[in-house]
Design a protein that fits this description.
This protein is an alpha+beta fold and about 200 residues long. The chain has 2 domains: about 20-120, Arc Repressor Mutant, subunit A, CATH 1.10.10.10; about 120-199, no CATH class. Helix content is about 55%, strand content about 15%. It contains 8 helices and 6 strands; from the N terminus they run H-E-H-H-E-E-H-H-E-E-E-H-H-H. The chain has helices spanning about 20-30, 40-45, 55-65, 85-90, 100-120, 155-170, 170-180, 185-199, and strands at about 35, 70-75, 80, 125, 135-140, 145-155. The strands form 2 sheets. Strands 1-3-2 form a 3-stranded antiparallel beta sheet. Strands 4-5-6 form a 3-stranded antiparallel beta sheet, with helices on one face. A hairpin with a 4-residue loop joins strand 5 (about 135-140) and strand 6. Helix 1 (about 20-30) packs across helix 3, helix 1 packs across helix 5 and helix 7 (about 170-180) runs antiparallel to helix 8 (about 185-199). The mean pLDDT is about 85.
Length: about 200
Amino acid sequence: MEYNAFSAGIDPGGLRNTKEIGILICYILEKAGKPVSELDLMEIIQSNGMANYFEAASAITELLYNGNIVYADEGKKEMTVSSNGKMISRQLHDELPLTIRQKAVAATVGLLQRQKTEQENPVTITKLESGGYNINLKIQDGIRDLMSLDIFVPDRREADRIRKNFHQAPEKLYSVILASALGDNVMIHNAMKEYLDER
């Protein structure tokens, strides 16, 4: 098989053939079952060392040109797989190593779960005229806000760090705050243990 892709950023067993990278992209988009932004697609591929960034970007361009993948939303650059792309995924996915298919599915599921968590638990960061940032953390149950918490921090780096840490386990943090507000030491201990174990 001809290896016509750069090898930088590729883990052992990763894809170096442009055709295989195209199959992988169709496979990921089909498994996602919903539109995925180009940025998120590249994150899935890059964070797992499945293919080189430049070759993956080139494969996306070629797949779009051939109509195997299409933009579901031009503004957000969200892509989905066309009927032709689904056929490629279903008929040719066996050409991809099993480990690559497993990585692709796990990374796609992880991305969709993270997006769901971020949507259900929004974080708003507001720069204040007086200096510093206000962060509003929310936990929602689909009907109401279960928690809305405002925190002040002096710089953006801390604000981004809080947002990232909050999204790792928002429901566990909620349990810690609720237990502390109730003053239940046993509940606080258990909630803190669960929160730290999650991290």
